[in-house]
Amino acid sequence: MSAAPTTVDCLGLACPIPVVRLARAVATVEVGGVVELLADDPGARVDIPVWCRLKDQQLLAQHDRPEGGWVFQVRRAR
Amino acid sequence: MWTRQSTEGRGVWTRQSTEPVPGLRSPTGGLDGGGPSSAGGLGGGGPSSGVAGNAGMAGGATVTAMSGAETYLDAASTTPLHPLAREAMIEAADGFGDPSRLYGRARRARMLLDRSRERLAAAVGAAPDELVLTSGGTEAANLAVTGLARAARRRRHLVVSAVEHTSVLAPARALAANGFEVTEVGVDHTGRVDPDELAAAVRDDTLLVCLQHANHEVGTIQPVREAAEAAHARGALLLVDACQTVGRLPVDMAGLGADLLVASGHKVYGPPGTGFLVASRRARLRPVLVGDERERRRRAGMENLPGAAAMAAAVGARVAEAPGEHDRLAGLSRRLLDGLAAIPEVVVHGDPGRRLPHLVAFSILYIEGEALLLLLDAKGIAVHSGSSCTADTQEPSHVLAAMGAITHGSVRVSFLHDATEADVDHLLEVLPAAVADLREMAELDTQAVERAADGSGEPQRGAPVGREGR
Predict the structure, then answer these.
(1) What are B148-152's contacts with CB under 8 Å, separation 24+?
(2) Within a domain: A55
(3) Which residue of A has its CA nearest to B469?
(4) Closest Cα to residue B397, out of B217, B277, B241, B177?
């Protein structure tokens, strides 16, 4: 398992694309691996944390990007 | 000043199971705020109006529109005109007259207006002089919130639930920017306000507590009676938005403990452009529309007499008819939920028990709600998507967001009084393939984005299920 997180760039893309791409990326990393998602769709701010809870994946961090949008760090928990 | 009382994500996923709702239970008794039915008080109601209504309504949810056969599953947005409402509307339009004048024609208009008002008031357990006729639910809600605040002296605080209709939230927001304090109370993952939390938000300087009877997006019935007790204990008033429940569930001012009540005509088989506010004598209002002294100086402007007569006929008929339809509609909702269980990755929204019988809301993961809506429309099915993934409104549904629910891929199905199992089956026949198609498109789209990103570093915009132009 590599230490560097997989980054998924969904800037400029509307829902549900960020959730779709996050789901796919999480499925491709090993358990314990981290996916970093960049998104600026307002729906993503709501849906990414909810998706993590629904799917029992761990939202490690969520913070604002200075350029706009958010960074979500999601650890594959199962 | 606007403050959110609850911490983000409060108890949303711990309070109850996050498992998809297994099925609806018919809310037998214990309906919050479901007071005694006021059907008996309907002027000229009686058995005949119920029979005439049932017999006369256009058959089935499959109505023939200009575009052809349609399975209409969006009753929570608007409803067709009740035949008795149409009759009353034409009659009132033909017998035109200004109710504020003094000659015979005008007096006849006044009498019809009074009769309509009495009938509407009786339907919700109000006194006729408490009722203000408006252009709809939106105006009624605006008048309630703004009009009450304008008449207020010392009390400068409002409590609103996070899932109120925007016609309540927007005027509250305007007040928050003008010296009032507003406390927004959150909801659990079923969309329901915690009555204790709401009670804790009420203060000695609270003017008004706003809590809908049932939510318009997910159908959850709110603890209105508890909210009334909390409001009244501190001398505050309760505004109940009953746009989704008048003519569907028992609505009674005393039973709900409401001081103000908002209703819409077109959501209860009356005409669009009609609605009313009940403002009890405890609720002092300054008008929003000014210019004359009509509606006891609470709403200026010529009364919409054909509209009022039609709304009164519709509400009277629906209050009589709705109880007999309740269990059948709840059965259709169960049938739909059973069918949805076959589609992978569907999350059902709302409270499994305390809910509107005719409304089912859910989110289908990984698809765009409006894209689905268009595919269903092409198959002659009309549903609503709560997803606001459109160019003009970029914010996700405030209701689903407050619930901590998935906001993309959201669908609201709401049945007309005469919806059939065939309507549900039509939807269930079309839905799985539409969902599969959209998921495939999303998959292809993400691949295209990746290819574009690999090639130029610039993500491809305007993809099939994405939003064009930001």
Answers:
(1) B148/B207, B148/B208, B148/B237, B148/B239, B148/B260, B148/B283, B148/B284, B148/B285, B149/B175, B149/B180, B149/B207, B149/B208, B150/B285, B150/B286, B151/B284, B151/B285, B151/B286, B152/B207
(2) yes
(3) A12
(4) B217
The architecture of the domain spanning B130-304 is 3-Layer(aba) Sandwich (3.40)
Residue ranges in chain B whose pLDDT is less than 50: 7-56, 58-67, 388-391, 456-470
Q: Output DSSP code: residue B379.
A: T
Q: Are B244 and B165 in contact (CB under 8 A)?
A: no
Q: Is residue A13 part of a domain?
A: yes
**Domain assignments of chain B as residue spans, ordered by start:** 130-304, 325-456
Specify the number of domains making up chain A.
1
Question: Could you tell me which residues of chain A have a Cβ less than 8 Å from any Cβ in chain B?
Answer: 9-17, 19-21, 23-24, 41-43, 46-47, 49-51, 53-54
Tens of pLDDT, residues B89-147: 999 999 999 999 999 999 999 999 999 999 999 999 999 999 999 999 999 999 999 99
Q: Is residue A1 part of a domain?
A: no
pLDDT of residue B441: 85
Distance CA B256, CA B33 (A): 4
A53: in domain: yes
Q: How many helices (H) and strands (E) does chain A have?
A: 2, 4
- CB neighbour class for B462 (10 Å; exposed up to 12, middle 13-18, buried from 19): exposed
* Cβ separation A13–B459 shorter than 8 A: yes
Of B396, B453, B466, the CB nearest to A46: B396
Residue appearing with tokens 């804790």: B200
Best residue of A47, A51, A56, A58 to probe chain B, by most B CBs closer than 10 Å:
A47
Which three-class secondary structure state does DSSP give residue B275? strand
d(CA B266, CA B243): 9
DSSP state of B456: H
CATH code, A26 = 3.30.110.40
Question: Could you tell me how far CA B306 lies from the centroid of its own chain?
Answer: 23
**CB of B465 within 8 Å of any CB in chain A?**
yes
Inter-chain residue contact B401 with A46, CB threshold 8 Å = yes
The CATH number of the structural domain formed by B325-456 is 3.90.1150.10
Q: Are B429 and A37 in contact, with CB atoms under 8 Å apart?
A: no
Query: How far apart are alpha carbons B348 and B140 in whole angstroms?
Result: 31
Show the domain range for A14: 6-75
Type of residue at B401: A
